[in-house]
Amino acid sequence: MSLLEFQRALCDMTLDVAFAATVLRNGAAALQGYGLTGIEENRLVAVVSQRGMSVNCTLARANRFAPIADAFPLTCSLLKSRLRGLLDELWSVHRPGNYQLAGEAHAFAAFLQEKLSRREFDHEYAAEVFRYECAAWDLIQTLPRSASAAPLEPVTEQSTAVRFTHDPRILVACLERDQPPPRGLPPGDYSVRLRLSGDTLDVDLED
Q1: What residues form DSSP beta bridges with 203?
Q2: 2-29 pLDDT, tens per residue?
């Protein structure tokens, strides 16, 4: 029995809903890319046919999505109507590198940045909202190092500026309430300053 190949196929079915559906629809023919015996193929077909398999897939997707939602909540809210399709596309090519599912936020950020660079998005606010959250996320990544500092060590402040082409007070306020911002906001030039002091992130609209 090729245990590693069996485990790889089972993991792929759990992480990739489209692949699991293909195995369910086509049976052992969908597993030809793995070095499996006939017995192993039949076992995997039986597994994917069980009702519990959909639960496994759902849990895997939820666990993979959690760090993405934590890092980019406003972007996820903004792209809510097409987020499922984006995640399906990402996860069809990106495989977790560890059992803790670390790296999902990085993979999502690289994936979305590539789409924005290629102008594959037609949403008028996507680029600036995503840019804002990337800047905040980059600052927050320094928290583990700051948290390990000696208690008496002075707290250092880090900051960065982000440009918006639409009023961030409207965009951010709507998305924080998980509401779509109004379309067709007048263009402008806005600068937002993000300041991280200790574990506190402050946001200020600059003049």
Answers
A1: 194
A2: 788 998 899 889 888 888 999 999 999 9
